[in-house]
Amino acid sequence: MTAKEVRTGTHFMNGDEACCEAALAAGCRFFAGYPITPATEVAESMSRRLPEIGGIYIQMEDEIASMAAILGASWGGVKSMTSTSGPGFSLMMENIGLGICTETPCVVCNVQRAGPSTGLPTLVAQGDMMQARWGSHGHYEIIALSPSSPQEMFDFTIRAFNLSEYYRLPVILLADETIGHMNERVVIPQEEDIEIVNRRKPTVSREDYLPYEADADGIAPMANCGDGYRIHVTGLTHDDRGYPAMDAKAQEKMISRLVDKIRKNRDKIIRTQNLYLDDAEVVVVSYGISARSAMQAVRDARNEGIKAGLIKLDTVWPFPEELIRSVAPRTRAMIMAEINGGQMALELERSAGGACPVSLVSNLGGKILHPGLILNAVAKAATEKP
Amino acid sequence: MTTAKAVKNVPPHPMDGLLRTERIPHIWCPGCGIGTVFSAVLAAIKNTGWDPNTIAMVSGIGCTGRMAGYIRLDSFHTTHGRALPFATGLKLAKPDTKVIIVSGDGDLFAIGGNHFIHAARRNMDMTVVCVNNFNYGMTGGQQAPSTPLGAKTTTTVNGSPEEPFNLCDLAATCGATYVARWTAMQVRSLRSSISEALEKRGFSFVEVITPCPSSFGRRNRMGTALEMMKFYQGRSVIRSDIDPSEAVVDIDREIVVGKFVDIERPTFMDHYEKVNRLNLPQWRAMHPDHQKGR
User: A263 to chain B, minimum CA–CA distance in Å?
Assistant: First the structure.
């Protein structure tokens, strides 16, 4: 009996399991993790599935080690991932920074629970949005995706691997407890119908290879350990050779490239799902599990004759500034719906730039948003004088 | 810039092939023992006759961590204390790679202590060379988990109030298959121990008592670099095959050196392959080089 690498077909599975199956379908063959609610099922699924198909699962001593191990595995030429929740995500920040600085492809799945600290281990929240953006020290850009269903957990995990391989950085999957534990239909396509992106390899000789010299699109081809290029990789600020360069000029050059490779490609990276946006007077912006509450609220509002619309953020980072900037001036109000004290609401407000009022519908974690709460806010915004 | 130009006129060195000569001069202080340890590591690597493209060096942060930046191999200078988990991922992803970890006592045993004990417990097939200079050199000489009781550092000006680890005993207790200790002055023994460690299957560990004249030596009035070298050598007593718990490092009395452990034990991959036996063919197909053994 040979186990399937891609379990093509229609399944009833939870988001965590869908994440595992997607990772394998994307080519992931190394997982290092540490048990933590509500992400444990990702690790458990990986521990069963990876040995079946010739991959490695290892349970590390903590999340610091898990993150370090997936970076090492990635340089070994194997697609790798880890999964965690808030407390573990905090521990991973150090080596997420190493992954950013050394431009190491890998995927980090954070199934969010309520914090700070141990918080509510078994209950939902979306409180790690800004931590995902800025949690590691220094200035950098990040890519983070936020699924709203187990199916999207599958689809976005594949995309997370593709983005990480192309743009060479740890890509964060910002899921939440509800999506992780929710069982729904998940359709896994035929293997040949799944788009797979692999890292660009150098084509020049060892003597001519500069590991951090970028191509026109800002991305440098990546030699793996053992490819014969004898690379040096460091978390110190480095030059095109990968060698430490301890001055402001080298810092400016390296950080600018790390930032630009994401910012200049954001049209290709950012994806949203827009609903009734063309004539919307009140626009709800949301992501993850909250986007499902928001979608219900927007449909209910339409049924009541209110011109409501929805922007569902499939990529939460980079934030779709241009879209918000174009929509805001023709909108009476925008509302961010999220399970935290208003983290992405700040981004929305910044991007709207005062062109329309921005408000927040939220709770502080432990339960999902009731669509009625969002509907009330939409109705109120629709009747308020501009 | 002027120094870089000067290097061009230096005659070739036998180890040039393994060095990123364009990065020389190095950052280590005059009299520092790390260069001696580095030379021993290079000689031991050369001695194996392995294809350099199949060897990787991983280091943490600190003076010793900079070795990875000077060796012309695939080399990874990671985060403070995290060389071992990074190396674990690298080794498992590419089992045919020989992985050498070089780092200091502070990196491996304070911030990285948890990773060390678990890498040894799992018997990850890799070699760790620890430069023990009794303090944090890069940051100017602070107390480390190896600092002798009573020794002066910038954070223990009245003497360290803590008892240090016996690094070799810790490695042995956690399951290392090879454990040895030498001082940086005992170059021949050190070189042959590192060679043995490299050839050893499993988690091998070599500790090198190394002078840090700029910080530890200066604050503890140990004289010049050469005097420190001779002092450590003079204090050292060779007692191979002694129980590692009795292999003490007491700079006031004696520094026990020698080879303390040389045993066989299945590695992580041995167990992983065994417990997942059903799927061995696929795994071997994916990692063909592993079939040759180490």
Answer: 26
